[in-house]
Design goal:
The protein has 184 residues and is mostly helical. Among the domains are: 45 residues, no CATH class; 60 residues. The protein contains three helices and two strands. The chain has a two-stranded antiparallel sheet. Helix 2 packs antiparallel against helix 3. The protein is elongated, with a radius of gyration of 36 Å. The N and C termini lie far apart (97 Å).
């Protein structure tokens, strides 16, 4: 039952205002005992926003499966990155960062287990959010020893070509001198 918003159109305006004031203040009122001026009858067209649904008509949405697969993929990628960064910082000897990424990897593993459990039970996906973080890391090549170095040449400009060769057919090499500290 709805209380009429047009209470001031009724002849007993004072009584209607008292009842509305009492209900708005939080006191319980029995609507059945109220005068008919406050209670409006609902017509069929006012009831259009309600739909009756049978339990057998409800199907699991394909969207839920998509959400589960997307979350699972994201968690696996995040777990792999955490393991990779943990190994990288471990190789560099940074223990605090290594431990931080190992804890993050454990958290990812736990979240993957929770996700698999809720999917197996047929529940809706757990609440989730996406967060983007930026970490400063050192680019390293673990296959190189500590006495080796990788040099990347991005572009060679104004390289003179010897006679008889065009600039497109030029094979060049780079000599890189790195001053090694002497113990003098």
């Amino acid at each position: 039952m709805k209380v009429k918003p047009q209470a001031n159109q009724q002849p007993d305006l004072k009584q209607d205002r008292d009842i509305l004031h009492t209900t708005k203040s939080g006191n319980a009122r029995d609507v059945i005992k109220e005068p008919l001026s406050l209670v409006s009858s609902q017509s069929a067209d006012e009831d259009d926003d309600f739909v009756v649904v049978n339990h057998s008509d409800i199907q699991i949405s394909q969207r839920i499966d998509q959400v589960y697969s997307h979350l699972s993929k994201q968690l696996k990628e995040q777990h792999e990155k955490c393991i990779m960064y943990s190994r990288r910082f471990s190789h560099l000897g940074n223990i605090t960062e290594t431990m931080k990424f190992e804890k993050m990897a454990e958290g990812c593993k736990k979240n993957m287990e929770i996700l698999e459990l809720s999917q197996a039970q047929g529940w809706d996906p757990p609440k989730y959010f996406f967060e983007e973080r930026t970490y400063n890391t050192t680019r390293m090549f673990p296959e190189l020893s500590s006495t080796e170095m990788v040099v990347t040449i991005v572009r060679g400009m104004n390289l003179p070509a010897p006679r008889g060769l065009s600039a497109q057919h030029l094979n060049s090499f780079v000599k890189f001198e790195f001053p090694y500290p002497n113990a003098v």
